[in-house]
Amino acid sequence: MSYYEIQGGRSLYGTLEVHGAKNSVLPILAACLLVPGQCVLHNCPDLSDVSATLDILRLLGGRAEREGDTVVVDASALIRSSIPEHLMREMRSSVIFLGALLARLGTAELSYPGGCELGPRPIDLHLAALRALGAEILEEQGALCCRRCRKGLQGREICLSIPSVGATENAMLAACGCPGQTTIVGAAQEPEIADLQGFLRAAGAQVTGAGTSTITIQGGGALHPVEYRVMGDRIEAATYLCAAAAARGEVELTGVAPDTLTAVLACLERAGCTLRTGGESISLSSAAPLGGIEPVRTAPYPGFPTDAQAILMAALAGGKGNTLFVENIFDSRYRHVDELRRMGADIQVAGRTAMVSGVGRLHGASLRSTDLRGGAALVVAALGAEGATQVFELRHIKRGYQDLDKNLRTLGADIQEVP
Ligand code: UD1
């Protein structure tokens, strides 16, 4: 049970290169199952969620090795199509294997991923999309048995009633194994979906439209070995920017496309930070306490990302002025609020809204991470706070941040992981 010991109040200065995007690399690793040959992925972050995904690939019969930030996957000889419950539980996003296994082997068995720390996370849209393509799916006692129907899989139109990121990715992967044309209408437009398309196209798949609400796939063709570089992590970048906004200072982040973060950058600018963007870089300088801003409403891309809600809230809680947050994606995404209150934050939650009244400066406290981004938010708050903070339950943070403490020390923060 290690924890972070953070001495707040040190300004952050310097340059950091962000890692590859967690939310991109996980579906891309699942997509490697479609390729009966070697896939070389560069810019793969070393995260517990990535290790869990590599374990799943090995269990299915694939070869998966890491050297530095390069991961080599070879799924030529798969030996099974079922994923045991303990691996499914480790990571909710492993439901993405459903579409990939269906496309490659025509069958998949895995346990129901169930809810998580953000509240219920249904997969009805994933299952409806796969059924539309010709999958028969049995749901029994928490298990999902999925196989292609007797007539086989066939491309067709899929309409998503909500632009679900996971359902869009599952449908894209399954459609690659379906002869004929699949059109996904109402698709999620997140940059990570465009990155998945980039990988699939590099492997020879005919996919177009990712990044818009309509994606078209001409499926059924064989994919070939591929070498691909994963995009930079916009949420990791948002975390370092909010940390610098809260602690003040001047930082430059490289390896991330600024146009994937437009909604977050606009909020930081309104709160009083100065921002400069280049091709793959973002610089932020923050000198005064952050001010209150217009309501922040989480929404599907290009709206404000739900993954950056807790992180921005943590920065604004130690500023001056009022900001209303409205969480529209998940039911239970304010669990960090109780912890921020221990630091003196003034935040009133009512259903989907949270009213943040900046108190000028937070103070250190002993805190517990409640989830991945909520945990990162506590670190952001602690860096700008007065005095010492301990952040426990680091396993949540390590799901999505490589070397968080080391990177922050590079910028001058006083943060240590205490074993
Ligand atoms: C979501 C985020 C994504 C983030 C990820 C991890 C959005 C739109 N998606 O992706 O940016 O990286 O969490 O934190 O912000 N839903 C259903 N049925 C389904 C699937 C989803 O009702 O079958 C609902 C969910 O309950 C949620 C909404 O659709 O309210 C969006 O969910 P979805 O995009 O699928 O979530 P993730 O893929 O997990």
Give your account of this protein's structure.
The protein is built from 14 helices and 24 strands. The protein is of the alpha/beta class and 419 residues long. The longest helix has 14 residues, at 234-247. A 4-stranded mixed sheet has the order 22-23-1-24. The mean pLDDT is 95. It has helices at 22-31, 48-59, 85-90, 97-105, 124-132, 165-176, 191-202, 234-247, 262-270, 309-317, 336-342, 372-384, 394-398, 404-410; strands at 3-7, 12-17, 38-42, 63-67, 70-74, 82-83, 107-111, 135-140, 143-148, 157-159, 180-185, 206-208, 214-219, 226-229, 249-254, 274-277, 281-286, 296-297, 320-326, 346-350, 353-359, 366-368, 388-392, 414-418. It is elongated and about 65 Å long. It has 2 domains: 3-18 and 232-418, Enolpyruvate transferase domain (UDP-n-acetylglucosamine1-carboxyvinyl-transferase, Chain, Alpha-beta prism); 22-229, Alpha-beta prism (UDP-n-acetylglucosamine1-carboxyvinyl-transferase, Chain). The structure holds uridine-diphosphate-N-acetylglucosamine. Uridine-diphosphate-N-acetylglucosamine (UD1) binds at residues 23, 121-126, 162, 164-167, 188, 190, 300, 305-307, 329-330.
